[in-house]
Amino acid sequence: MGFLDLFVVAVVPVLKVLLITLVGLFLALDRIDLLGSTARPYLNNLIFYVFSPALVSSQLAGTITLQSLATLWFMPVNILLTFIIGSALAWILIKITRTPPHLQGLVIGCCSAGNLGNLLLIIVPAVCSESNSPFGDSTVCASYGMAYASLSMAVGAIYIWTYVFIIMRIYADNSAGNIENVSTADSESYTEALLPSSEKSSCHDHSAHGELPETVSDGKKVTFMERTFGRFKKFAANTNLKKVFAPATIAAICGFIIGIVSPIRKLMIGDRAPLRVLESSASLLGQASIPCMALIMGSNLLKGLKRSEVSVSVIAGIVAVRNFFLPLIGIGIVKAAHHFGLVGSDSLYQFILLLQYALPPAMAIGVMAQLFKAGQSECSVIMLWCYVLAAFSLTLWSTFFMWLLG
């Protein structure tokens, strides 16, 4: 598979996202106003409460079985490592660039969460369908590739709507004048607060006084890690766990149960399943989530083009993390996992594991930014640059990964 062929394969899915983003930008113009400030929250709520849960549950139910969990167990671990390593690199970036507090959660989200779903669902079948594909028979490759990509999408969605969702919520709540300034009607239309009402006032009082003291009573200075752990411990103690779980997380749990429990799976999954209409309906609803996320990103981009507080150094840092540092680290992790027998010799499986480190940020980050009223315009500017550059970086890394596995 030549470089030009691979370039076309890698650039097409990214161009699709960018084109839909431009449509969202056009619909948000004042003269059109179909995705203006009034319409965006409604579309965002549809994504949050309906489309994303439907997508996650249908993908998990269709791809997860006890057998697949036994053979593909390293993929969830690998995806979790991308989130943890990305978060660590984001923390370093925040310290170097002195990112404003209200954008720190956004930076962590963009560095940790990659687009593990729709890009892989487009790239992998396209690579398999090429006559000179390095992964063997196109039919077998496409079948296994779609299963791997679907699992990647489902597991990635779980981490995004738990790990990243909670982190971005914490930073949004702690940033000055963010959630507290949102009207009651607006906050109810987005999502319920994580803290019980009885705790909100005390939490607000602590945040107004710096949350944790810089020194303790004996004069010893409290370290950054101790203060961070203290904040997390206080948040965990006050958190209403019923409200932590986003709709997509609950849907993921349901999808796991349907996929793993054989009697339920036989009822709902398969061409001859009596209740297959439920799964197909959920899948049909879920297909709307990806284009709607891109439309939201484009509509927020209009505001970002007019005025954005994100600095060039922050954008460059996020691009460097996602396009350079994460892929390099990923090569070491996947190669080490293969060396120690944690990953089999299936080159297509290893290729997807490597690609998970080289993808641009997940579009769900834009949905969360809209939900929490934290850096919506800045998020769109970051996404624009990341996806434009991903057209080239994905091609280069895909070529290198295939050479490495060959």
TrEMBL record:
Protein localization: Endoplasmic reticulum membrane
Transmembrane residue ranges: 6-29, 41-61, 73-94, 106-127, 147-166, 244-264, 284-302, 314-336, 348-372, 384-405
Membrane topology reported for the UniProt record: Multi-pass membrane protein
Pfam families documented for this protein: Mem_trans
Claim: Translocase is one of the keywords in the record: no
Tree of life domain: Eukaryota
Family: Belongs to the auxin efflux carrier (TC 2.A.69.2) family.
Protein's job: Involved in cellular auxin homeostasis by regulating auxin metabolism. Regulates intracellular auxin accumulation at the endoplasmic reticulum and thus auxin availability for nuclear auxin signaling.
Protein name: Auxin efflux carrier family protein
Organism of origin: Salix suchowensis
